[in-house]
């Protein structure tokens, strides 16, 4: 699949390198052509497969799937720079708001959909970039599960493939209206992690979750 990435930072690097290695065609993009080209060259060397660099509009036009991987501060400007090429495309939203300024009434995934007219799938926002660099992310013998929130069946199918290409397991998280819950979860968990708490320890295993028990 052709994957355009809006962004040439850590998340673009971690995810895009895996996908290039898995045989996808990848183009990264940023504000500074020299920085994007340097990133693409490092990814090419790491993946053993060519990664291209371009402008936001070029990466948006290149991708059958377009990954939105920029800081919130640059989000609107980036989407505007990519322009109309994003309309109707599968868009993977990995963004998070600054946890200190998180506003539950303002979903970045919803904003991306409204601004672009693309088919947004929220994914990959719950784990630190170093987790996405792992080959593969497996903890206690279990592959990392990646929840996806989106409405469009074709976009969801494409993102499930991209999750599997990382060695992870896709999990149905419901429609795009629930993406704000993934955003809130990230804000909450990041607060715990940075406070030194083991966020994984706050949830019981499935057997003790209360699900699947007779009423
Ligand atoms: N890092 C993580 O652990 C992690 C984990 C999950 C989700 N996320 C989310 O993923 C997104 C990308 O994170 P990242 O770690 O890849 O960030 P990063 O390394 O700082 O890269 C940010 C990218 O955003 C671009 N950008 C465009 N306009 C910008 C502006 N006004 N200010 C800052 N950057 C701007 C940068 O362009 P240039 O190349 O021109 O600088 C760069 O390509 C963010 O929304 C973040 O919250 C991050």
TrEMBL record:
Q: Pfam families this protein is in?
A: F420_oxidored (PF03807)
Does this entry carry the keyword Oxidoreductase? yes
All copies of domain Pyrroline-5-carboxylate reductase catalytic N-terminal, residue ranges: 2-96
Specify the protein name. Answer: Putative dinucleotide-binding enzyme
InterPro entries under this entry? NAD(P)-bd_dom_sf (IPR036291), P5C_Rdtase_cat_N (IPR028939), STEAP_metalloreductase (IPR051267)
- Is this entry keyworded Nucleotide-binding? no
Supply the source organism for this entry: Nonomuraea rubra
Q: Which UniProt keywords apply?
A: Oxidoreductase
A single GO molecular function, which one? oxidoreductase activity
């Amino acid at each position: 699949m052709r994957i355009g990435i809006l962004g040439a930072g850590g998340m673009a690097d971690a995810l895009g390198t895996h996908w290039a290695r898995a045989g996808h065609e990848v183009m990264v993009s940023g504000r500074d052509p020299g920085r994007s080209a340097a990133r693409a060259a490092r990814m090419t060397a790491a993946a053993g497969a060519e990664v291209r660099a371009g402008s936001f509009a070029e990466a948006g036009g290149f991708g059958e799937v377009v990954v939105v991987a920029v800081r919130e501060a640059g989000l609107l400007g980036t989407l505007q720079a990519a322009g109309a090429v994003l309309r109707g495309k599968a868009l993977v939203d990995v963004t998070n708001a600054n946890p200190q300024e998180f506003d539950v009434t303002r979903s970045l995934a919803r904003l991306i959909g409204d601004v672009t007219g693309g088919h947004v799938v929220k994914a990959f926002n719950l784990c630190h970039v170093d987790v996405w660099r792992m080959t593969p992310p497996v903890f206690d013998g279990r592959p990392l599960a990646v929840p996806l929130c989106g409405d469009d069946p074709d976009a969801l199918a494409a993102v499930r493939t991209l999750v599997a290409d990382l060695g992870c397991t896709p999990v149905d998280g419901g429609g795009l209206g629930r993406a704000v819950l993934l955003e809130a979860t990230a804000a909450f968990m990041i607060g715990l992690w940075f406070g030194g708490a083991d966020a994984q320890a706050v949830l019981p295993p499935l057997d003790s979750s209360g699900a699947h028990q007779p009423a």
